[in-house]
Design brief:
Distance between the termini: 76 Å
CATH class of the largest domain: Alpha Beta
Number of helices: 14
Order of helices and strands: EEHEHEHEHHHEHEEHHEHEHEHEHEEH
Shape: globular
Helix content: 40-55%
Strand content: 15-25%
CATH architecture of the largest domain: 3-Layer(aba) Sandwich
Largest sheet: 6 strands, mixed
Number of domains: 4
Radius of gyration: 26 Å
């Protein structure tokens, strides 16, 4: 099936494949998202091509017949770019480009291109470069075919292979340097977080383009960059947010998630995503206007589970309710997600309700307590450091006073440990 769209200056064709384990509806939804990614990258979709197969073709991903169909479409309309909705192997890219005689990108390559254009800070640029090099490394062979000899055997190792090995060595060395640089960025973040320990920390997480940055701006009165495009925010931004006259929290806006996010990209942004693991609570923002917001919630939840933070206290924040025409969606969604709040960040609807829910969550989950322990009881002091977050520490001649923030489910055990020493 081929769906044509209006012509644009930078035209591309999107290609998606449905299989026995991937329905046509899911493929179409994924292609909708791929179209948004293409728009963010500066391309306009000329056509969408879909195919039903039992399994992917090992050589060209879509099979010989569909490649012929694509070649006709590309040639007749002078299309310079074809984007596949799944990751392609280096051999598949090489085979398809040879047949179509145009540039071929897969989903990961497109996302990396967007990240490269969006990266503004030194840390983001470093993380993107690392991900790009890790993506490029296994694809070098096809990039040097113009220097390789056309036959194999003894005595046929030419400059192509030499150049590939040289480039691989250079890239591996560069990857090592970038990893060290990112590690230093991570250490700097640890130092920065030490100065924030007296404030409860919240992380804004969610699918890309659900309104996290808009919400942070509204809550903090700041001016975090906002744009109605995917991946407008790559760098985490932390702001002080007042909940009431006597309560403030630190809130961090994090990079948005997306389906099929390249694993090497997640790995490269690990130091950025550590802001989530260091948070006391998570505000999971979702776009209630999206037809696939349930699937988006699952994508984010799965990513949080991969990061090992799925058990953190979480409040679901359903944004953009001002655009709802069917208000019954709120009641149905509230029943499915009991710990949730419904807002509009652009119009400021129910923001006080959001602050009340965050305050309620904090009261339910945490308690601040001060303990004075004899310095001779180093085992208990060590235990208290692991049982909760140390907000303050004071030493006297014979004792140490620790101010801790403890989860309520751990509080009873901590009190029992302390009482045994008295």
């Amino acid at each position: 099936m081929i769906e044509l769209a209006q012509l644009g200056k930078e035209r591309c064709i999107l290609v998606g494949v449905s299989t026995r384990t991937l329905s046509r509806e899911t493929t179409e939804e994924s292609l909708d998202e791929l179209a948004l990614l293409a728009d963010t990258a500066g391309a306009e979709v000329f056509a969408r091509v879909t195919q039903d197969r039992d399994r992917y073709d090992a050589s060209t991903f879509v099979g010989k017949g569909k490649v012929e169909e694509l070649r006709t479409l590309v040639t007749e309309n002078a299309i310079p770019l074809v984007i596949f909705d799944d990751d392609l192997s280096p051999a598949q890219v090489r085979n398809i480009e040879r047949e179509l005689e145009c540039k071929v990108l897969d989903r990961s390559g497109l996302i990396l291109d967007i990240f490269a254009s969006r990266a503004k800070t030194n840390e983001a640029k470093t993380q993107v470069e690392l991900a790009q090099l890790q993506y490029l490394l296994p694809r070098l062979t096809g990039m040097w075919t113009h220097l390789s000899k056309q036959f194999g055997g003894v005595g046929t190792k030419g400059p192509g292979e030499t150049q590939i090995e040289t480039d691989r060595r250079i890239i591996r060395t560069r990857i090592g340097h970038l990893k060290e640089k990112i590690e230093r960025f991570g250490q700097q973040r640890v130092t920065q977080r030490k100065g924030r320990t007296k404030h409860i920390r919240a992380a804004l997480v969610g699918y890309t383009n659900v309104g996290k940055s808009t919400l942070l701006n509204l809550l903090s009165g700041s001016d975090v960059f906002v744009e109605n495009r995917l991946f407008a925010t790559l760098d985490p931004t932390t702001r002080l947010v007042p909940l009431s006259s006597n309560t403030e929290i630190l809130m961090t806006d994090t990079v948005g998630f997306i389906r099929k996010l390249p694993h090497h990209l997640v790995a490269s942004f690990k130091s950025t995503l550590e802001e989530i693991s260091e948070a006391d609570i998570i505000l999971h923002v979702s776009d209630i206007l999206s037809k696939t917001f349930q699937d988006q919630i699952m994508v984010v939840s799965d990513t949080l589970a991969d990061l090992g933070v799925a058990d953190k206290p979480t409040l679901m924040v359903f944004n953009k309710i001002d655009g709802l025409t069917d208000r019954s969606i709120i009641a149905a969604t509230s029943e499915q997600f009991p710990q949730s709040v419904f807002i509009s960040a652009t119009r400021g609807i129910n923001i006080l309700g959001l602050k009340d829910e965050v305050t309620k969550l904090l009261r339910e989950e945490f308690v601040d307590k001060t303990f004075t322990i004899s310095q001779r009881d180093q085992k208990l002091i060590s235990y208290l450091h692991t049982a909760g977050e140390v907000l303050d520490k004071e030493y006297s001649e014979s004792a140490v006073t620790l101010s801790l923030r403890i989860r309520k489910k751990e509080f009873e055990r901590v009190m029992n440990m302390v009482s045994k020493t008295k």
